[in-house]
Amino acid sequence: MIIRNTIIALSAISLAAGTATAKQPNAILQAIDDALPGTLINDPTVVDWVVYGNNRKPKQVAAPETPGQFAMQLKVAKKGAAKHDMGVNVPIRTGIISGNMITVAFWAKATKADTADGNGVVGVRINEDKAPYDGFGDQDMKIGTDWKLYEAKMRSTMTLGAGQAVVGFQLAGAKQTIEIGQIYVLDMGAS
User: Fold this and answer.
1) Average pLDDT in the 31-51 region?
2) Neighbouring residues of 106: CB distance < 8 A, sequence distance ≥ 6
3) Residue 10: what are its φ and ψ, rounded to 5°?
4) pTM for this one?
5) 121: which strand partners?
6) Which 8-state DSSP code applies to residue 83?
């Protein structure tokens, strides 16, 4: 709940503020990092995501209900044989230490889902950005039809160097259209 309230508050603060202890490569990321618990280890201000699998072309759409006011719309043409048959990989800028708690907080909604309850289905994990794509923290999340901030919390079982990991959003669990907005990946440390 603390992360949710802080991220909602980010939409109201000026991101151009300076800071005394810079850990981030620019003032915008530093302001976001300063407002959140833990350490921000991705860049939530860009959509440099890698989309793969059986999708129709992804497109950026407006999402004024979210702090970033943008989202990537992803249409899964058909349910896959495995949920990772279609997905999105979001880069993590820094290294990850085995034993640390990682929180992946992301805005999302399902605009269409061929499921019994009408909710979308998204698998979330952190994995290497190369074969064999070993990873940790696998969690399946139901995504509702209204914008909501979702959180996946996981303990790292791997040590990965800077730029070697991604957050994987696995989308082929259903024929569906999912919109994903800003994504915040936070290293919460060992405790």
Assistant:
1) 87
2) 124, 149, 150, 169, 180, 181, 182, 183, 184
3) -60, -30
4) 0.86
5) 142
6) G
